[in-house]
């Protein structure tokens, strides 16, 4: 062991702290010992931390609890109270003003149908409908949609009756892993309203029309912000096209139920007798 290491061990400082203090030759000139300086620095840091903590605690103590509010199990800063209207229900929340709608839905309200994919506006998995228009909930501050009508995948069905778009996705087998599906369906539902309003896209030919007829190209273009890693795109387009056009087509596949299975078993048994 060399002399320098002996000194470090004796001072109780780590090599990094020693290296840092080597950058401060003026300490010795000012007659301050290295150990005393480090001690004061740690005490100062803890003091600031404690002061900060006290301020947060004081902010919490000054808030009267809202009836029915959902609380997170961790300390928050920049607290705001919001009343969100989600799927027709008023949801009071006390949240950090920086919380995005996606996290408010999933983490605070347990509405986990809305999925987090990229969390940066690239994949569309988090799409919900706000005042009839699709938005990316990962890029939308929860506090900014107070007073608006928010619709998530959980709010599309009427009781036991699926929304026509949900039923069409099932009919056309428009999903595989299903992770992107809530965002795809919310996007598709709002897309039909866009077409009814005559909103144009990059591929719209007649931009003066008051409604837009959705060709497959229109659907592909308008759904291009919703990524499906399983590649269920053709079936998604078919499902949206059917709901948009109102022209029903036959199922192209069927789930094998117990009756059908029993028939097949009987046929096999007959053949092997
Ligand atoms: S999670 Fe919002 S766009 Fe990907
Ligand atoms: S169904 Fe799997 S990502 Fe779309």
Automatic annotation (TrEMBL):
Task: Tell me the protein's name.
Answer: Xanthine dehydrogenase YagT iron-sulfur-binding subunit
Q: Which SUPFAM superfamilies match?
A: 2Fe-2S ferredoxin-like, CO dehydrogenase ISP C-domain like
Would the keyword S-adenosyl-L-methionine turn up in this protein's UniProt record? no
Q: Can you name one GO molecular function term for this protein? A: oxidoreductase activity, acting on the aldehyde or oxo group of donors
Domain 2Fe-2S ferredoxin-type, residue spans: 80-156
Show the InterPro entries listed in the entry. Answer: 2Fe-2S-bd (IPR002888), 2Fe-2S-bd_dom_sf (IPR036884), 2Fe-2S_ferredoxin-like_sf (IPR036010), 2Fe-2S_ferredoxin-type (IPR001041), 2Fe2S_fd_BS (IPR006058), Aldehyde_Oxdr_Iron-Sulfur (IPR052914), Beta-grasp_dom_sf (IPR012675)
Q: What's the short name of a Pfam family annotated to this entry?
A: Fer2
> Is this entry keyworded Iron?
yes
* Keyword annotations from UniProtKB, A to Z: 2Fe-2S, Iron, Iron-sulfur, Metal-binding, Oxidoreductase
